[in-house]
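ok so I'm stuck.
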Amino acid sequence: MSVPRRPPALLAAPLLVLALLLTGCASGAAPAKTPVGAAGLGAAGPESDAASVRRASPAPEATPSPAGIPGLGPETLAQVPAEARQVFVVTGEEADSHRSGAVLYSREDPAKSWQPVLGPWPAHNGMDGWTDHHVAGDLRSPTGVYPLTDAGGRLPDPGALLPYDEHPRFAVDGEGFFGEPLEGSFDYVVAINYNRTAGVSPLNRTRPLGLERGGGIWIHVDHGGPTQGCVSVPEEHMEELLRTLDPAMNPVIVMGDAATLGR
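replied:
not stuck anymore, here's the structure
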């Protein structure tokens, strides 16, 4: 039950040595708070004579709400679990574009603002862009908010904080949509919990929503072209991401085209 490192979605050419069991990198998931300040009357105090005068004290300045995440609208932010303290935002240029950018945000507690800690990085997504209803073989990446709980790859663990499954079955060969070599695409991967079971290797083929809804959607090493549904970033950034995503901070990925994420 293993899948080549390159998401099956990335395998466009029949030269692919491994058939992704999950329809690969292609197939296919909070509340907010707003502090408020209130004005009140100050306690009466003595003046220059014996008379006491009750005076209203100036209203305290309203405490600003914790800053949100750039590009994410209220509908999207509401989907981010309250316990999540790391959010990997992947924003597509257009609904039908395979180019995107990625930034990892973090905050220590819900009362504080989100801060960028990694990125921005260039990234790729599905060949045909994004979709709110991913199905196997549609060559689109699923939009939404998904936990990140498991990692793995063909190469040894680079110091990942998430559970890491090193396995030769992450090896992949062949060519991508533009003829680019796919070799090394699955050297490092982080499973996106779309239509999968948390707490198992990314190679696991369990599909809770059914095989028709796709699976094997990963963050993996970029090979210089679009994927079948996964998200890919340059290899050096994948290593950084693996060393930073912390299960104790309940990391999630927020992914989609800019217009969708801005809702």
